[in-house]
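Reply to thread "Modeling small-molecule complexes from scratch"

Following up on the discussion above, here's a worked example others can learn from. I took a protein sequence and the SMILES for adenosine-5'-diphosphate and predicted the complex. Inputs first:
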Amino acid sequence: MVKQLNEGILKEVIVKRPADSYKGDYGHVLLIGGDKQYGGAITMAAQAAVSSGAGLVTVASDSVNRSALHSRVPEAMFVDWSDLEVLMEQIDRSDVVLLGSGMGLSEYAVSLVKRVLMQVSSKQVLVVDGSALTIVAQENLMFPRETFTIATPHQVEWERLSKIQLNYQHEIQMNDVQRQMLNIDILVLKQHHTVIYSSDGQTELEQGGPYQAVGGMGDVLAGIIAAFVGQFKFNMTQTVEAAVYAHTALADQMAAYNYIVRPSLLADGMANFMARYQSNFD
Ligand SMILES: NC(=O)C1=CN([C@@H]2O[C@H](COP(=O)(O)OP(=O)(O)OC[C@H]3O[C@@H](n4cnc5c(N)ncnc54)[C@H](OP(=O)(O)O)[C@@H]3O)[C@@H](O)[C@H]2O)[C@@H](O)CC1
Ligand SMILES: Nc1ncnc2c1ncn2[C@@H]1O[C@H](COP(=O)(O)OP(=O)(O)O)[C@@H](O)[C@H]1O
Ligand SMILES: [Mg+2]
């Protein structure tokens, strides 16, 4: 049976911060993506990660994106992704690695995806989005068994990965079998009513609408998920459910007075949204 997500998940997961905590308690998130064409995608993911409470955010991207990223998200650190030695050190030091938003499909991107999948260990949580999903499918790669892996495909990315055609993706059982075969711990199958698959079962999101059909909306979701799993020491499935619910609940609120929801504004609105839904709020 597919459960429906509701607002209760936010109060379960988004807790008030202890007074004596510091940035190291809230996760070091490394975002790898953004080629010469898609710098905006990784910038929006970084914006979302910072605004959703990640303690430390580092972006590894094509060097062409450095100043644009810093002008929008000065909180984020930057690594040129062509410096593999530094990048591998950054992976070892991070709690969460988000791979793929705006990464593109170049030969270098393919080699980088292979390298990152080899480097991550049981110490990191891996979030795989966008082009990295297409690369994994095209190159017949496997997600690493020892690393907790969250994949966030839209339906065509899922078709490439799972070989399940779009028309058959309502078959819950079939998607779950493919999830397990691919070593994906949590599958966020994005669509009009997004479904989350994990060993805890399936949950569906009833909220959301076409005002979210804007390029970058998925990149922002990936950044929110990465920040949530980096900071909330809670059941992993529920943490991802809270991230998915928060992303769309805020979009619904913004759509009350906007024809479409700009992903970058949604990213910036997350800190305010989380303050309004945190539990133990005095
Ligand atoms: N500002 C930036 O930098 C941005 C950068 N971005 C980055 O771009 C990279 C490529 O990602 P992508 O999703 O744009 O392209 P891809 O994986 O080829 O899939 C599209 C193909 O699938 C088809 N399609 C059919 N149904 C669909 C559905 N429900 N949902 C989606 N697609 C559907 C669609 O059909 P068509 O629309 O052509 O008829 C088309 O043939 C990725 O790394 C991403 O992060 C973007 O986030 C945008 C903002
Ligand atoms: N009509 C819709 N109803 C509900 N959610 C939508 C709709 N269209 C898009 N979305 C949401 O927007 C996001 C789009 O993700 P994705 O296709 O990866 O975008 P991008 O790669 O451009 O950032 C997903 O979270 C998806 O569920
Ligand atoms: Mg996407």
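What I'd highlight from this example: The pocket of adenosine-5'-diphosphate (ligand 2) is lined by residues 130, 154, 190-192, 194, 208-210, 212-213, 215-219, 221 (CB under 6 Å). Residues 2-277 form a domain with the UDP-N-acetylmuramoyl-L-alanine:D-glutamate ligase fold (CATH 3.40.1190.20). Questions welcome below.
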